[in-house]
Amino acid sequence: MATALLQIKVKPRARSSELVQGPDGAWLARLKSPPVDGKANEELVALVAEHFKCRKAAVSIKSGASGRMKWVKVEAA
Predict the structure, then answer these.
(1) pTM value?
(2) Phi/psi at 48 (nearest 5 deg)?
């Protein structure tokens, strides 16, 4: 089972949701959800799972749950 650890900068309240990787390898997630009651974190997990074509259960936020910079763990089968 392959595991990836990504550092993702999150921008909540964006016009559209997207996950992009910059030319320097840094990840940026633009989320429509506001950072209230964990809604942005839920959307981030769903967005990462969709991007890497895995289940939401395979994606977890390891650190930074209340900040803009997050470490996200992705476990691929």
Answers:
(1) 0.93
(2) -65, -45
